[in-house]
Amino acid sequence: MGGVVVFNSGVRVLAAAGAAIPHTGTVAKTTLATITVPPMGPNDRLRISTLWSMTNSANNKTFSIDLAGTNFMAVVHTASTTFKDTREIVNRGSSASQVCFPASAAGANNSGSAVTTGSVATSSATALTLSGTLANTGETITLEAYTVELIKP
Questions:
Q1: Does this model's pTM top 0.70?
Q2: How distant is the alpha carbon of residue 65 from its chain centre?
Q3: Number of domains forming the structure of the chain
């Protein structure tokens, strides 16, 4: 990880990793990465890109993204071996109101579910967590890579 890197006028990479972070042995929701998000303005957004691998079985594997304890992704997979997601958490003209693609929806094209909303106070630094939950202790979820970007208009 390291310091904040500025690539262009409005995008800052807050964290990026490509080392595999595996989770196995418990059915409890387990945090695999925690990223400190600096204070955000009323129109700022976070873009979170993740790559996961998992045991291919009929058992549930749940992939989660939480901002200050508010869940913005809880996608469940069964008979798959990989999952990739890019998700944006957007402040809606207020540092205490967010909108995001439906938390339970995998992919970024369309969903029959309503958008996910939050009321996280992002005017102060917050914690973004990437987590995994297993239904079977003998299986594995691995956070293969992630990038978290702060976008300022």
A1: yes
A2: 3
A3: 1
Q: Would you say how long the chain is, in residues?
A: 153
> Rounded CA gap, 128 and 78, in Å?
25
Measured CA to CA, the distance from residue 59 to residue 71 in angstroms comes to: 22
Strand segments (E) across 1-111: 5-8, 11-17, 21-24, 30-37, 45-54, 61-67, 70-77, 82-91, 98-100
Residue numbers of the domain that contains 10: 5-151
> Hey, how many other C-beta atoms are within 10 angstroms of the C-beta on 27?
13
Taking the C-alpha atoms of residue 125 and residue 34, their distance in angstroms, rounded to an integer, is 13
* Percent of the chain with pLDDT strictly greater than 70: 90
CATH code, domain with 123? 2.60.120
